[in-house]
Fold this sequence. Notes:
37% of the residues lie in helices and 20% in strands. The protein has 5 helices and 4 strands.
Amino acid sequence: xxxxxxDRKILEALQAEGRLSNLExxxxxxxxxxxxxxxxxxxxESGLIAGYRAVLxxxxxGLSIMALLHISMDKHTPxxxxxxxxxxxALPEVLECLLxxxxxxxxxxxxxxxxxxxxxxxxxxxxxxxxxxxxVHTSFVLRHVVDKTALPV
Length: 153
């Protein structure tokens, strides 16, 4: 999809504030409401806008610890990876799972948990029990330095 300056302005505005009304959005980008709405619908239908979400405050939900886990697998087979990925996708504490290169690990997970007891339960009773997990190395996040979801358009 070829994006013009109005499409890019729409994407930037919606990434910053997804609850803008069509009227507010049209005003911000300098279009009338009808063509603005048509463009937003076209961006949604193309899949470029994949969805809209609320961003929650983890600490206010009692999730005060964020950790990055590097997971090593015993075998590098499609079946082993598929099994691991399905098991990880079912864990609500896992915010992100990335298959990575350049490390001693195969996956990097970003997880949020209430406290160290919850981390211990997650690690020992769920993650390390997934067939094929041969090693886990954890780093705890001290502070967010850059925390954004907006993509450069």
